Each structure stands twice: as structure tokens, then as C-alpha cells.
Amino acid sequence: MAPYESDDSTTAGEADDLRTGRNKAARYVVPVAVVGVAAATIGLVPALADSGDPDLPKISAQQLIDKIAKSDVQQMSGTVKISTDLGLPDLGGLESSLTSGAGKSGDGSSADPSAKLTELATGTHTLRVAADGPDRQKISLLENAAEYSLIHNGKDVWGYDSQSNSVYHSTASDSTAEHKKEDVPATPKDLTEDALKAVDDTTSVTVEGTAQVAGRDAYRLVIKPKQSGSTVGQITVAVDSKTGLPLKFTLTPASGGAAVIDAGFTQVGFAKPAASTFDFKVPKGAKVTEDDQTDHADGHFDGGLKGDEKSGKPDGELAKGPDGLNVIGKGWNSIATFDTGGQGVPSGSDVGGDFGGFLDSLGDKVTGKFGSGTVFKTRLINALITDDGKVYVGAVNKDALVKAANKG
Questions:
Q1: Would you say 122 and 84 are in contact if contact means Cβ atoms under 8 Å apart?
Q2: pLDDT digits over 136-158, tens only?
Q3: What is the DSSP letter of 172?
């Protein structure tokens, strides 16, 4: 990490490694119909609800980041509440159609985690989580009169949707099992690790007081962009003072108001979960979908934001991402861009009906040297789609997108 403005600073040698993970931290939550790609959960930043200000020894930002990095909680269980408010209009009956086709494998099983967990992009949800070392984790999404569970047990990954009595199964190698586990950043620790990878010399990191979360004393780590133009206001992480485990993760937009995402433990314990927690038996009559393991990379947004080492281009210039995706800009003002091949997004009048109204409610028409296009907006992620099919997307405001498009 690059040095910060105060003594609460990190060392310069870590900046490249953290910057490389910027794309992963910015898993853009953009409507599927808008950008044509499903991306779940940007580095979640929830608003911290103080339930007390414990008196703890002073600690620097670097020391607290080191404490997070050294945290080695192998066994734990608890309940996590996640609230997401991207400022999208009420989708009504469109919500299921927008998410139902995103990321499903095979015949579109509702038990596929890449499809089911898109629900976390809106509203408030409660998760039960449990872990016993690197080979056993379980996440359960509690719904009205239903439950969705994702279980990683050794080389098996199981997803079960009780509402449809559908099962998803993957028999993975060590690497793909780990990949599947990382596809579900459901705990504050997962989210914090992603967010810290966004830290570079465009970022201010400080320790600002203490809090109590789920009955545990915690430090408040605050991460803020130094640059103007970002839609991110700040990220606040409550870090357990004893274990270094992030307990709560909050992202507040630059526009103010409620947090875009608030994810935190409401209950947590560090006893070893019972082995039966991770057992799974296919329920009677359930439809089982076996995963096509050639699709394991789908939906993963892991391109780096470092300069092109082969060409010698420094950071801030055009950097190649995966599958024709390019990244321009630096730090929090990074913008992902790709070309759809000349297929712009139709206007609401072209589409008609409820879906046309949905598109119009999201988009603002813009013009510039690039021609014309539409900016689709949320409280955090904005996307410019030009009429000739080029896409610019990032956690930046409309003016930054237009400026990027004008530069071509």
C-alpha cells in the first residue's frame, strides 16, 4: 500500500498487490438488462450502527490492517444481516425476470448460487454462516417460509433451494472448490478483504474510534477515496479487537443518505460447529442439476488495474482486463469499458410495456464527442452505453463516464 496522509499509514511496497485486486473489490452491481453482464456485490460498505464506544488501546491504521491480515479464525458461526439500497426503482414483477437468467448453469436451476445470490443486490436479507477450516463452510439465506443453503464440504459444493426443492451440485478440484467458496462474499471478512485490495495512493485509511458489534468490542477502520468523481463516500469496517475478524462492513455513497450496503454480524461465536452442520442429503423428489465445471470462471471479475507490464504502460493508462474488458483511469475513478459489437440499448419507447418504462426510469440521455448514449444510474454504480454499443461502467459519476467516452 502507498503511504497515507497521516501516521496511520501503510508501507509503499504493498501498493501493487492491493491495486491488482481493485476489480475484485469492485464487483459492479448493475442491472442485468442494462449492461448485459451479471455482477454481484461491489465491496460492500454498510453503515455502522453504534451500540457503544468501548475504551480500547490506541492502534494505527497500519496496525489494524495487519491485524485483519493475520486474523486466523478457523471455526465460527453466526448470523449476518445484509441491507442493500442501490436506489433502483421498484422492479415489481420485473425483478424475477431480470435475475432469473443471470448466471444460471444447465437448465437454469434456481439452486445455482450464481443465480440465487443475485437476490442480495436488493433489499434486506438474513444469512446464517458457519465455518470449520478451509474445507467446510455453510451459508443459508433465510426467506419467507423458505431457505436457500450453499454448503462447501471437502470437494463437494451443494446448493439447495427449499422453495423449488431444487439441488445444485459441483464435484470440484481443490482449486475450483476454493473458487466456488470465494464466489460468495457473504461475510464482513470477505467483503473487507476485497475492499482493502482497492487501497492505493488514491485512498485515505484511518482509525476513527470504536464500536460494539454483536456484543464484541471493535475498532472502526474508515476507508475514503481522495479523488473527486467517485460515487463512494466511505467504507467503514468494525474490526474485532481480539481476533481481528471484521464484524461489520458499511459502504456510504458520496451523495449521502443511507448506506448503499450494510453487512454485519448480529450474533457471532467462535466454537467449532458440529460436523453435521456441513452434511447434505438430497431431499426426496428434489431435482438435481450437476454443474458444468467449464463454467466455473463465469461471473468472476478479477482483471487487474495495474499497468500493462509487457507494454510498459503505467497505472492510469489503458489496462487490459479479461475477455476484451479494458480498464481506464486509476484507483476509485477506474472505469471498466468493453464493446458489445454495435448493439446499443433500446429506449423504453422501442421496447414498450413495463420493461420499457423500467429502462427509461434508469437512464439519462447524454451526448458528447463520442456521439450519444444513455447513462444508467444507481446510487453507487453508473454505466454509460453509447448508441453504437460501447459500455463504460464504474463507481463514478455521470460526468466522469462522459469524459471517458469522449477520450474514446
A1: yes
A2: 999 999 988 889 999 999 999 99
A3: -
Q: What is the pLDDT of residue 335?
A: 94
High-pLDDT (> 90) share of the chain, %:
48
Q: Shortest CA distance to 29 belongs to which of 240, 351, 316, 253?
A: 253
Whether 301 is in a domain gets the answer no
Into how many domains does the chain fold? 2
Residue 1, in any domain of the structure:
no
pLDDT of 295 strictly over 60: no
Q: From residue 380, how far is each of 193, 233, 404 by CA, in Å?
A: 19, 9, 18
Q: Residue 65: count other Cβ atoms within 10 Å of its Cβ.
A: 26
Note the helical H segments in 118-262.
174-182, 188-196
Same domain? For 324 and 275 the reply is: no
Q: Map grid coordinates 474508515 to a residue.
A: 222
In a domain, 245, yes or no: yes
Domain-located, residue 4? no
Closest CA to 213 of 193, 187, 240: 240
Q: What is the mean pLDDT of the chain?
A: 74
pLDDT digits (tens, 9 = 90+) for 38-68: 223 222 233 333 445 899 999 999 999 999 9
The rounded distance, in Å, linking the Cα atoms of 399 and 377 is 12
Question: Among the ranges 88-92, 96-100, 316-320, which has the highest mean pLDDT value?
Answer: 88-92
Please tell me whether residues 266 and 375 are part of one structural domain: no
Residue holding cell 439465506? 141
Q: Does residue 29 share a domain with residue 168?
A: yes
Share of the chain above pLDDT 70, in %: 65
Say whether both 335 and 275 belong to one domain: no
What's the 3-state SS for 317-385? EEEECHHHCEEEECHHHCEEEEECCCCCCCCHHHHCHHHHHHHHHHEEEEEECCEEEEEEECCCCEEEE
What range defines the domain where residue 226 resides?
Answer: 12-293
Helix (H), strand (E) at residue 33: helix 32-35
Q: For position 401, which CATH number holds?
A: 3.30.310
Spatial separation of the C-alpha atoms in residues 223 and 219, rounded to whole Å: 13
For residues 161 and 114, state if they share a domain: yes
Between CA 88 and CA 287 the distance in angstroms is 33
- Give kind and range of the element (H or E) at residue 1: none
CATH number of the domain at 131, please: 2.50.20.10
Q: What is the pLDDT of residue 126?
A: 94
